[in-house]
Write a structure and sequence with these properties.
heterodimer, A: 137 residues, mainly beta, five-stranded antiparallel beta sheet, three-stranded antiparallel beta sheet, 8 strands, 37% strand, B: 389 residues, alpha/beta, globular
């Protein structure tokens, strides 16, 4: 691969550095509150339910498409070759939702309830992105 | 506690709408202000409060919009501020104006929305929402509303024909609104189906317009309003509810499904204050960033059950001109102009005053005006009437 990755990359902050570091290891991690045991995503300094202290846990990496939209409009020129593409709310098996690109399936074949699993895209030597694809049979 | 009918809207000013090449956003705000005081016969010095919703064209300069407008007009005020709750702002500004007057901080509060997004070029509204959305290719507001609509379709069988019925009804109203951007461009359901996709399941015409322009509304006590040039538009009920998820994934599914606005809680408060219910409503002016937002509010306000909004809106003879429940009688944001929450408020004022011309709904006693913002985070309800009680 000689072409440089052109699309937006995350700018992690203190709350999210461990998440993006885990992506580099091809691991999906989320948080769980030490006090009330709620699962938490996106990462935070405090549990949004009880303000307790979150700890990082490895997510199963599987879930279902809660809902989705298919982008036809090109909002950013670097996505011009991608349309139509699917962005979904993935309801992880732990019960939190994560917004993600859905790959490995035609937009017309996506449906709410579709089982998906995490997939990783090594965008640059420094940054790995998460995306989801239909579960492999 | 403020009671029903103690406050009123006494003045309104709305500039031209559309592509207004070269028009500065502060000047647009000032023009709307001038039109509003002329409408009700106030002098500039009478206005002692200014609340502004800066549009996207005013986001630079640390959002110092209201200072710039007050400076441009050389206003001396007892209360002034920018406010930002997206499409719920106009309603919330009316409510805050009432509170400020009740507190003795002002007598006449001007609330203004002004924007010139056409002059910012493409992508003005496609704000990138941080480290999660950008990498996923997720931009702007159309996709989250599309996702909400897709879930609704999945659960309740809502169809494109039903969303299209809303777009077609509002387009018909726009033909009777001299200022509407879509006047002269009639649309059938077939035309609706033939427009391009933006973010499926939304066609282009499921989405609101964008417009350069400004609107100003002046709020005062009912007593003062009764002594002025134009008939008072009495405020019977107000309500707000907020449960914030700009990121749709932050919705707590047990409490706030992604396919619901906060209209239920906001509406309950406003209806209780007004002492009326949905059966008393003669005309609705709903915030309509998308067709689906209208469908959602019809359910959330309780005109029908959750899930029945599709068939309800598509029922022949319901929404459009001459319908049993006219909604967005000026064409709304889908077909007239996009002033965030000001568009429905402006049309509500004209309908209650009987100034809506060809599109006037007969015998308006109760007008339900909504605002919705921050995807579906915030809701503001304002119930208007030509009668003091």
């Amino acid at each position: 691969m000689t072409t440089e990755y052109q699309k937006p990359l995350p700018k992690p902050d203190q709350d999210t550095v461990p998440f993006w570091e885990a992506c580099k290891r091809h691991e999906l991690i989320i948080q769980q509150c030490k006090s009330c045991r709620s699962y938490i995503f996106y990462p935070r300094m405090f549990c949004p339910v009880c303000l307790g202290e979150p700890e990082w846990v490895k997510a199963k990496g599987t879930g279902e498409i809660y809902t989705y939209s298919v982008y036809y409009q090109i909002y950013h020129p670097v996505f011009a070759d991608d349309v139509p593409y699917v962005v979904a709310l993935v309801l992880l098996d732990e019960g939190v939702m994560i917004t993600s690109r859905i790959v490995g399936v035609k937009p017309d074949d996506v449906y709410p309830g579709m089982r998906v699993e995490v997939d990783f895209l090594d965008a640059t030597p420094e940054v790995t992105l998460y995306q989801f694809k239909p579960v492999s049979k | 506690m403020i009671a029903k009918g103690q406050y009123a809207i006494c003045g309104i000013g709305v500039t031209a709408q559309g592509r207004l090449a070269g028009r500065g956003v502060i000047g647009l705000a000032a023009e709307a202000f001038k039109l509003a005081i002329e409408d009700c016969g106030l002098q500039k010095k009478d206005v002692d409060g200014l609340l502004l919703q800066p549009g996207v064209g005013m986001m630079s300069g640390m959002g110092m919009g209201w200072w710039k407008v007050a400076e441009y007009l050389q206003l001396e005020v007892g209360i002034g501020s920018d406010m930002q709750l997206g499409g719920a702002t106009a309603g919330a500004m009316v409510h805050n104006a009432m509170g400020a007057i009740e507190a003795g901080l002002a007598n006449y509060v001007a609330i203004i929305y002004a924007d010139n997004p056409f002059q910012m070029g493409p992508g003005a509204f496609a704000l990138e929402l941080g480290q999660w959305d950008g990498p996923a290719g997720n931009f702007g507001a159309s996709a989250p509303y599309s996702m909400a609509a897709r879930r609704h379709m999945h659960l309740y069988g809502t169809t494109h024909d039903q969303l299209g019925a809303i777009a077609v009804a509002q387009r018909a109203f726009a033909q009777m609104n001299p200022g509407a951007m879509m006047r002269g461009r009639q649309m059938t359901l077939e035309d609706y189906h033939n427009t391009r996709w933006v973010t499926w399941p939304f066609h282009l015409v499921d989405c609101c317009l964008i417009s350069d322009g400004a609107g100003c509304i002046i709020v005062t006590s009912a007593e003062r309003a009764a002594a002025m040039k134009k008939p008072p538009v009495y405020i019977w009920g107000i309500g707000q509810a907020h449960h914030c998820y700009l990121d749709l994934g932050q919705a707590r599914l047990d409490v706030t499904p992604v396919y619901a606005t906060r209209a239920r809680d906001s509406g309950d408060k406003a209806f209780r204050m007004a002492g009326v219910d949905v059966n008393d409503v003669d005309v609705c002016e709903f915030y309509d960033c998308y067709t689906f937002t209208v469908l959602n509010q019809v359910e959330d306000y309780g005109f029908c059950k959750k899930g029945e909004g599709g068939p309800y809106c598509a029922e022949p003879g319901r929404l459009g001109p001459g319908g049993s429940l006219p909604i967005n009688t000026g064409g709304g944001e889908l077909s007239a102009w996009y002033h965030q929450g000001m568009t429905p408020l402006e049309e509500g004022v004209w309908q209650v005053r009987g100034e809506a011309g060809e599109r006037q709904v007969k015998d308006v006693n109760i007008c339900l005006v909504s605002g919705n913002g921050g995807i579906m985070s915030s809701h503001a309800t304002t119930i208007l009437s030509p009668h003091p009680s």
